[in-house]
Amino acid sequence: MPTFDKDDYLNGMPDAESLKGDPASAGSDQHGSDSKADKGGADDTAQQDTAKETDAVASDGQDQQPGSDSKQEDDLTPLGRAKKEAADYLDALQRERAEFVNYRNRTLKEQDTFRQHGIIDVLTALLPALDDIDRIREHGEMDDSFKAVAAKIDKTFEKFGVEKFGEKGADFDPTKHEAILRKPDPEAKKETVDTVVEAGYRIGDRVIRAARVVVAAPQKQ
Question: Is the distance from CB of 198 to CB of 212 less than 8 angstroms?
Fold first, then answer.
């Protein structure tokens, strides 16, 4: 029987460096890597499925929200539904009433504007005749019958809001007076109306024609 030699047995075994190129060892390592990759892919697939389920649940929740109002209406009693309809009708009626009030106010304002323009057109056309009446009245050449006619004309214009202005001795106001002449006055302390050549007319704050006047101005030193 041969004798077992331990040193010869150990020397005959391959070392660690020679095992690196061993196909069996490489196959074992590759098998381990593939197992890990398969496990990682399975985990990714599971995460994607979970995300899809979460999105589906959220989408279902959003789809159900619009229907919640109709569900609440269905839950109302007949009296509750009647009250809700009455409130809706009242709101619509109030809106219509507000629109009508705005339309009426706008229409009335437009009517006043058109009316005022008509009065201005008539007054402008009659200004030369009114100036002649004032000149006749100033010179005292008006008989009783003509005075009555002139008074009726003045009252008619007053009825439509036409105001006549321009008086001797009044302070000169360039916004309503047109100075056709200025004459120095040693006694004047400020500019005043000395003579009214043609009277002015206005409607409210709107001047139709400025009064044409002669102005007495303080004498320059």
Answer: yes
What angle in degrees, to the nearest 10, is found between the helix axes of 78-138 and 144-159?
A: 150
Residue 77: per-residue pLDDT: 86
Report the candidate in 133, 191, 203, 132 with the shortest Cα–Cα distance to residue 165. Answer: 203
Q: What is the CA radius of gyration of the chain?
A: 54
Which residues of the chain carry a pLDDT beneath 70? 1-74, 221
User: Would you state the structure tokens that stand for residue 178, as one six-digit string?
Assistant: 């047109």
In sequence order, what are the beta bridge partners of 127?
none
Give whole-number Cα distances, 190 to 128, 172, 184, 193, 210, in Å: 31, 8, 11, 10, 20
Helical pair 66-75 and 23-64, crossing angle rounded to 10 deg: 40
Instruction: Write phi, then psi, for 190 (nearest 5 degrees).
Output: -155, 170
Q: For residue 216, what are the contacts with CB-CB under 8 A and spacing of at least 6?
A: 182, 183, 185, 188, 191, 192, 193, 194
pLDDT score of 28: 42
